[in-house]
Amino acid sequence: MTDLSFFLSLETRVWQALVDGDGAADRALLADDFLGVYSTGFAIRDDHSGQLADGPTVARFDIRDARLMPLGPGRVLLAYFASFTRVAAPAPEAMPDSMSEAMPESMYVSSIWENRDGIWLNTFSQDSNAADPAPV
Q1: Do the domain assignments include residue 95?
Q2: What's the CA gap between 15 and 71, in Å, rounded?
């Protein structure tokens, strides 16, 4: 399958899980053997979904300039530019639901999606920080 909009919708669900703080939704989209390569190091599925244990990590995001590259039967690479704003930690005196936003960030993302037993799962993701932040 080489339907760009289909894979963008899957990738958007991963990002939306970060916005919603939904570790179960995030985990369901990642393969058991998921590998993430980030500026902070390697991550497995439990690391990726575990970051949501304390709630949302992203306040907003935008995906653009997406490209799809077939890698063989049942496997594609989705690459795109993402701009996003992380959820900043609340000030000590702030109420728990009054989270503020951090500064916008941007990066290039490459994700491999693989069809396993009829289910498309994210098996690999690598983020590369963009040189200049873009507005969200």
Answers
A1: no
A2: 23
As a whole number of Å, the CA-based R_g of the chain is: 15
- Closest of 87, 72, 69 to residue 15, by C-alpha: 87
CATH of the domain at 76: 3.10.450.50
Q: Are 13 and 25 in contact (CB under 8 A)?
A: yes
Two tokens, residue 13: 């669900």
Domain that holds residue 9: 4-88+101-129
> Is 93 inside a domain boundary?
no
User: How many secondary structure helices (H) and strands (E) does the chain include?
Assistant: 3, 6
Cα 86 from Cα 74, distance rounded (Å): 32
User: How many domains does the chain divide into?
Assistant: 1
pLDDT (tens digit, 0 to 9) for every residue of the chain, 136 residues total?
A: 679 999 999 999 999 999 999 999 999 999 999 999 999 999 999 999 999 999 999 999 999 999 999 999 999 999 999 999 999 866 555 555 555 567 889 999 999 999 999 999 999 999 999 976 555 5
- Asked whether residue 96 is assigned to any structural domain, the reply reads no
Spatial distance between the Cα atoms of 55 and 13, rounded to a whole number of angstroms: 16
